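Project outcomes to date are best conveyed with an example. Our students and postdoctoral researchers have been running inverse folding experiments weekly, and each run begins with a structure described purely in tokens. The record below, which covers 200 residues, was selected by the lab manager from last quarter's runs and is presented without edits.
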């Protein structure tokens, strides 16, 4: 089964999606994604929790393509690693995780999410956060961006009224409502629901 991973973010205490390895593919999904890659694609790194002993039949079946590519890359580049600089010299048999990926498998995120989310055995689970101690959930991160934008506008002489952060946190504070109430500016409550106007 595949897993959709959530965690408690230490910076805010909220539970939310993990920033890295949001999906963990099962061996079946991993094998499907591996088989769809071209012959020149770098080898992938199978999920560590689903790894099996090197002598097992499952590993030979699921990762034969990766092993073949690793051997090919090793033999093709062994003679040039010491003298050639650039991308060709970085070929190795270690796991390949391109920059910008949000997973350790080495599969483009949109492919991994599409395949894992369609897994019939998909399960949701929580994990211990491995990110920075101040990291917050994605919703808090979005509101912090709204706050930064509001403060940036304020520093530039613009008002804050109408900004998302103002509407959420500042528009109806206890102090502002108390002031409006003292000045008689709060709207008069309407009749209670179910009351018949003009009834005796």
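After processing, the design step wrote out the following sequence:
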């Amino acid at each position: 089964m595949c897993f959709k991973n959530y965690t408690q973010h230490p910076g805010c205490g909220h539970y939310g999606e993990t920033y890295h390895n949001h999906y963990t593919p099962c061996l079946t999904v991993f094998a499907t994604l591996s088989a769809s890659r071209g012959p020149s694609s770098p080898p992938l790194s199978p999920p560590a929790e689903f790894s099996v002993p090197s002598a097992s039949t499952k590993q030979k079946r699921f990762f034969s393509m990766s092993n073949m590519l690793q051997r090919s890359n090793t033999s093709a580049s062994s003679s040039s690693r010491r003298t050639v600089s650039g991308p060709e010299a970085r070929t190795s048999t270690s796991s390949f995780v391109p920059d910008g990926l949000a997973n350790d498998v080495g599969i483009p995120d949109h492919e991994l999410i599409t395949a894992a989310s369609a897994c019939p055995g998909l399960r949701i689970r929580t994990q211990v956060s491995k990110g920075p101690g101040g990291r917050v959930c994605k919703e808090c991160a979005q509101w912090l961006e709204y706050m930064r934008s509001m403060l940036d506008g304020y520093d530039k002489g613009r008002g804050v009224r109408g900004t998302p952060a103002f509407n959420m946190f500042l528009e109806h504070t206890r102090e502002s409502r108390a002031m409006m109430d003292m000045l008689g500016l709060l709207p008069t409550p309407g009749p209670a629901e179910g009351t018949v106007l003009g009834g005796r």
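The longest strand covers residues 3-8. Residues 55-65, 75-100 have pLDDT under 50 and may be disordered. The training component of this project remains on track.
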